[in-house]
Amino acid sequence: MKCPYCSFEESKVIDSRSADDGERIRRRRECLKCGKRFTTHEVIETVPIIVVKRDKSREVFDRNKLTAGILRACEKRPVSLTQIEEMVDRIEAKIQSMLDREITTRQIGELAMEELKTVDEVSYVRFASVYRQFKDINTFLEELNKLLTEKQ
């Protein structure tokens, strides 16, 4: 680790502590040349998840977009923010555990619908209507019938 004062490249670790709920390690170091102390933070390097959109363009996975979509579907429904956060956490954990670092918007939508179906059926239908782009009342009714059949 390069000293910020004299640029010497060797230092010793004096103290290590966990920071940010275990997401980082804070280290106090001492330069072996000038003796000055400085702090460094060590984080796990993650490979970003790339989302492949319908038009084949790619962008980095954005948890906020997923949260916003689920929030919209749950608007004026008896679904708490805590439940929404937990759903997004579970979806993100599933995405992170996949071996492939690319995921389609279709796969994300399916995961979201899976979660919504267990929490609130009306929110599920709302999300599905936007996600699956229902073209008419018949496709909407087909989705409702599937939901009713699964419930029985």
From TrEMBL:
Location of the ATP-cone domain: 49-139
GO molecular function: ATP binding; DNA binding; zinc ion binding
Key words, A-Z: ATP-binding, DNA-binding, Metal-binding, Nucleotide-binding, Repressor, Transcription, Transcription regulation, Zinc, Zinc-finger
Comment on bound cofactor: Binds 1 zinc ion.
Names of required cofactors: Zn(2+)
Zinc finger (unnamed): 3-34
A single BP term in Gene Ontology: negative regulation of DNA-templated transcription
PANTHER family recorded: TRANSCRIPTIONAL REPRESSOR NRDR
Classification via NCBIfam families: transcriptional regulator NrdR
Role noted for this protein: Negatively regulates transcription of bacterial ribonucleotide reductase nrd genes and operons by binding to NrdR-boxes.
Family: Belongs to the NrdR family.
Name of this protein: Transcriptional repressor NrdR
Organism: Ruminococcus difficilis
